[in-house]
Specification:
It is a single chain. The protein is of the alpha+beta class and 100 residues long. The protein has one domain: 2-Layer Sandwich (YaeB-like fold). Helix content is 39%, strand content 28%. It has five helices and four strands; from the N terminus they run αααββββαα. It has a four-stranded antiparallel β-sheet. Strand 2 and strand 3 form a beta hairpin. Helix 1 runs antiparallel to helix 2. The chain is globular and about 35 Å long. The relative contact order is 0.18.
């Protein structure tokens, strides 16, 4: 199960993202991802990124590249944790990378 709270919070702030985030959530909620290749079957533009802590997160383009959803995917436990949802401009500032 993936928590919907971050999606709800971001959609309240940015209503234009709501439909695309709901689509992402529906697909991710029913997915069985065992490796990055599985994720890319559903979301071809998902990229792994090493963040400041040294951990790897996965960045999804949302809404025609207007937004970014950053998630920790634990393939061994089939768990997805939404860490951040950002506008493209917020993402480009790269503060999120140092914070995670």
């Amino acid at each position: 199960m993936i928590s919907y709270s971050r999606i709800r919070e971001f959609a309240e702030r940015m209503p234009a993202a709501a439909e695309a985030l709901d689509r992402w959530y529906e697909i991710a909620q029913h997915a069985t991802w065992m490796k990055l290749a599985d994720v890319r079957k559903d979301f071809s533009h998902c990229d792994p990124v090493v963040v400041g802590s040294g951990n790897v997160v996965h960045v999804f383009n949302i809404g025609g590249n207007k937004f970014r959803l950053i998630a920790a995917i634990h393939f061994d436990f089939s768990r997805v944790f939404i860490l951040r949802i950002l506008t493209h401009a917020e993402y480009d500032k790269n503060r999120w990378n140092r914070e995670l």
